[in-house]
Amino acid sequence: MTHYLDLLALLWFLVCWVGYTWYSRNRAKTRSCLSNTLDLYREDWMRVMLKRENRISDTSAIGNLERNGAFFASSCLLILAGIITALGYTSEAMEVFATMPFSVVPTREVWELRLVVLLLVFVYAFFKFTWAMRMYNFVSVMIGSAPLPDDSKPSPASREAFARNAGNICNLAGDAFNLGLRSYYYALAVVASFIHPLAFLAASTLVVIVLYRREFHSDALNALRDGKVFEESLQVRQSTDVKTKS
To answer: How far is CA 77 from CA 83, 121, 132, 177, 184, in A?
Structure first.
């Protein structure tokens, strides 16, 4: 019976992870959330960058974002090393968890499967963080090649296209970083599986609730959405889309 409960908890975990990723991506197409609101800010950032001759602040901001990804990527490597080490001490770890109240001691195979699931979660996070780092590096190159304000050769349309493309790369980097950060939340749910399969079920559900509230109903979203820059960026995007379609 315990094996079936472990399998059910693992399937529910996958449903929560894949299902919420799909839901948030499609829901963002019809209503405001942190992801699409920050997309507008990033595009507006690139437009403002084109009006500046000195772009040290822009490259510094990109560098800070890239370092954030590097920090989490290196943390993933340390965590992966710890998990691989724990695989070699399965018996000792099971004895420690057996003394905890309400804990259910599984078979050695189930215990190692839980560690492997946790390992895969951080491998996924590592790839997302490193990809975000690379794309922020691409944005740095684009900022370095951006036309200066007094350069009369690029037309306003080409400047707008450049800003949109640079903002799009920055948005992709932010999305990759966001997916990597979500993996840490889901990893905490996997940790709950070492206590009890029901705790794994509850933790997976709780992670989705927390992510949904922060993405679609947080105070941070309200502050960003009501900002002046957001309103101006939204108007620019809508007018540009209309011109493109016509």
So the answer is: 10, 12, 16, 16, 13
Rounded CA-CA distance 143/201 in Å is 45
Report, as an integer, the average pLDDT of 180-209: 93
Distance, CA of 177 to CA of 124 (rounded, Å): 11
What is the pLDDT at residue 5?
86
> Do you know the residue count of the chain?
246
| Run of H or E including 5 | helix 2-27
Q: Would you call 241 helix, strand, or coil by DSSP?
A: helix
pLDDT value, residue 237? 55
Structure tokens at 210: 């927390």
Identify the pLDDT of residue 246: 42
The pTM of the full predicted model, rounded to 2 decimals, is 0.85
Instruction: Give the pLDDT confidence score for residue 86 in this predicted structure.
Output: 87
pLDDT at 132 over 80: yes
Question: What sign does the CA torsion over 118, 102, 201, 180 have?
Answer: negative
Mean pLDDT lowest among 30-34, 47-51, 86-90 = 86-90
Please tell me whether residue 100 adopts helix, strand or coil conformation.
Answer: coil
Return the domain boundaries, the chain.
2-23+33-245
Q: Specify burial of residue 171 (Cβ count, 10 A radius: 0-12, 13-18, 19+).
A: buried
Q: Which residue has the tokens 């949904």?
A: 212
DSSP 34-88: HHHHHHHHHHHHHHHHHT-S--HHHHHHHHHHHHHHHHHHHHHHHHHHHHHHHHT
pLDDT tops 80 at residue 94: no
